[in-house]
Amino acid sequence: MVGTMANNGRIRPAFPVANGSKDLTPDSAPVSTAGSECGQVEFTREDVEALLNERIKYKSKFNYKERCENMMEYIKRLRLCIRWFQELELDYAFEQEKLKNALVLNEKHCADMEASLKNKEEELNMIIEELRKNFESAQIQLAKEQTEKLAANDSLGKEKEARLAVEKAQGGLTEELGKAQGELQTANQRIQSVNDMYKLLQEYNSSLQLYNSKLQGDLDEAHETIKRGEKERTEIVENIGNLKGQFSALQDQLVASKASQDDIMKQKAELVNEIASLKVELQQAKDERDHHLTELKTLQTEANKYNDFKDTITELETTCSSQSNQIKELQDRLVSCDRRLQMSDLTTFEKMNEFEDQKQTIIDLKSRVEEAELKLVEGEKLRKKLHNTILELKGNIRVFCRVRPLLPGENNGDEGKTISYPASLELLGRGIDLMQNAQKHSFTFDKVFLPNTTQEDVFIEISQLVQSALDGYKVCIFAYGQTGSGKTYTMMGKPGNAEEKGLIPRCLEQIFETRQSLRSQGWKYELQVSMLEIYNETIRDLLSTNKEAVRTDNGVSPQKHAIKHDAHGNTHVAELTILDVKSSREVSFLLDHAARNRSVGKTQMNEQSSRSHFVFTLRISGVNESTEQQVQGVLNLIDLAGSERLSKSGSTGDRLKETQAINKSLSSLGDVIFALAKKDDHVPFRNSKLTYLLQPCLGGDSKTLMFVNIAPESSSTGESLCSLRFAARVNACEIGTPRRQTNIIKPLDRLSLG
C-alpha cells in the first residue's frame, strides 16, 4: 500500500557561537551525528536575525494564493530553524551532562588523590617517628658500642633518602592536585558558556514562538479574507442574476424592436406600392386631361363651326374640371404619402440605431457576465485550494458524499421525501438533509454530489488529490456505504462505456498523461501496481497467475500474505504480486483480470454484490536528474464491501458467512474511527485485516479521502443514516499532517540511474 522511503540520516556541522565572538572548537562544542530532517543546513546568528526580520513581499495584496504559498514556505523555514535549534539544544544538553560527569570524575579523582596523600603523610610520620626512635637507640648504642656507629649512620642515610623520595612524591601529588583544580576551573567556565548559550537559545525560541503566534494571527486573517471572498462571491452571484435579468429584458426589448421594425418595413413597402400606384393613376389622369384638352380644343373649334353642340361643350368642361379636381386630390395624396414615407424612414433609422445600441449593450453585458463567471470560477478554485490546504494542516480525513440516482422500479416520489439538499450559499454543494420518521437529520461534508452528477464531475473534484501522489505524497481514497449504493460504480465505473468510467481508470489516465508532460522538466517515473482483496478475513492476490493461489473451494488462500509496517509508515504484504506498468492500457488489462478474480455474488439487495474489500495500490517512484531530487508516492484506491442486514439481504450458507465477515470488518473500522475521534491512546487497528492494512492511511501521514455512497429510496433510510453518521465521525478525525516523501539523489544512485 505505501511506498518505501530512503534513510534521511545526515551529519550536521557544529553551530557557531550565537554572540559571534568565535566558532566552537571540537573540544568546546558538540557535533550532532544523529539523523534529522534539517539535513546539512547551518544557521548563524545573522541567518536567524535575517529570518526573524524578513518581511514577505507580494506582487498583489489580493493574490491570496501567492500569499498562502509564501506564508507556508516561510513557516517551513521557521520550523526548520526551530528544529535545528532544538537539536542543537539537545546536543548542548548532552555535552553539558557529559562535562558534569567528567567534573564529577575529576572531583572524585582529586578526593582519592587527597586521601592517598594523607595516607602517605601518615605513613611518613610513622616512619619519621620510628626513625627518631631508632636514632635515639642508635645514639645510646653509639655510646655503648662504637662498632655499631657505622651501621647506624648507613641506616640513617638510607632513611634520609627515603624521606627525600617521599617528599618528592608529595610534591608531585601537589602538582597533580593543582592541575586537577585548573581543569575543574576550565570545566566550570565551559559549563558557564554552555549555560549562556542555552539562555540565548531559549530567548531565540521564545521569539520564534511569538512570531509563530503572529503567523497564526495572519492565518486567522487569511481565514477572514476567505470569508470575505465568500461574501464577494455571493455578491457576484447576485450581480450575475441581476445581469441575467437585465439581459433577458433587453432581449425581450430587442425582439419587440425587431417586430416593430418588421411592421414599419411592411408599412413602408405598402406605402411605396401605394405611391407607385398613385403615380400610375396620376399619369393616367394627366394623359386623360391632355386628351380631354385636345378634345376640348377640337370641340371649341367645332363649336365655332357648330353652335348646336354648346351643351356637349359644357359637359366636357365640367368633366375636365372634375378631373382637374381629382388630379389635385391625387397630388395631395402623393405629397402626404411622401411625408409618411420620410417619417417611416426616420423611424426606421432611429429603430436601427436603437437596435445597434441594444446589441452593443447586450455584448457588453455578455462580456461582463463572462468575466463575472470567470472570477466566480477562479474564486471557487482558490476557495477549494485554501480549503484543502487548511484541511491538510488540520490533518482531517476529507469526506465526499454521493447520492446515486433512482433505479428503474424504485419509487420516484421517495427521493423528495427522504433526501433534500440545502439551498443556502453557505451549504450549497456541501449539505444534505435526511428525513426519517418525520425527523430531519442534517449533515455537512466537504462535497455532496447530487444524483445527476457525472463521473467526470466527480473526478474533477479529486484530480488535484491524485496529482499529489506524483508529488511524493501517500494518497488513499476509499468508498464506503451499504450494498447497492454505487461504491463499485464510483470506483470502477461501467465497463465498455467511456463516459461512465470510474475513478480508478480516470486516475490512471491522469497519472500517465502527467508523467508524459513532466518528461520535459526532467522527471522520470516508474510505476508499480498491486491488487488484492480481503475475503472472509483472508488476503487474496488478484494478480496471481495461479488460480489455485487465488481461490480454493473453502475460500482460504494457500499462500499466507502477512501484513507488515516499517518504521517509515510503509506497508508491505508478503508474497504479493507487484508488476511494473508502462501505460494505462496495461493497467486496464490488469483491472479486468482482477475483476474476473474478485468475489461477487447475488443477494436480494444487489444483483452484482461485491463480497470482498478490493484494494488497488499504485507505487510511484520519480527521479529528476537535473535537480537531483527523488520522490516516492503511493496511490491507494479501495472499494469496500457494502454493509447489509441479514433481514434484507436474505443471505444463507456461504453468503451468510461473507456477510458476517464483511459486517465484522466494517464494525472494526468503526471502532478505529471512534477511537481516533476520541484520541484514545490505544487504537484497535489489529482487530481486522482491513483496519490493519489501512493503518498508515487512518493513523499516519497520508492524504485520505472517503466517499460515502447513499441510496435514495426510502427503504434504505436507516442504512443511509448510519452511513452518514459514520462519515461525520470520519470527517472529524485528525490523523496528522501529510508529509511529502522526497530526498536528494546519492552519488551511487546517480551512477546507477545514468
From TrEMBL:
Q: Does the keyword Transcription regulation apply?
A: no
Q: What is its main location?
A: cytoplasm
Tell me the first and last residues of the signal peptide.
none
CDD domains hit by this protein:
KISc_C_terminal
Its subcellular locations are: Cytoplasm, Cytoskeleton
Span list, region Disordered: 13-36
Q: Which GO terms describe its cellular component?
A: cytoplasm; kinesin complex; microtubule
Q: Which SUPFAM superfamilies match?
A: P-loop containing nucleoside triphosphate hydrolases
State which residue ranges cross the membrane: none
Cite the binding residues for ATP. 481-488
Kinesin motor domain segment(s): 396-733
> Is ATP-binding among the key words of this record?
yes
GO MF terms here are: ATP binding; ATP hydrolysis activity; microtubule binding; microtubule motor activity
Q: Which UniProt keywords apply?
A: ATP-binding, Coiled coil, Cytoplasm, Cytoskeleton, Microtubule, Motor protein, Nucleotide-binding
Q: Which residues form a coiled coil?
A: 110-148, 177-232, 261-389
Q: Which family does it belong to?
A: Belongs to the TRAFAC class myosin-kinesin ATPase superfamily. Kinesin family. KIN-14 subfamily.
Name of the protein this chain belongs to: Kinesin-like protein
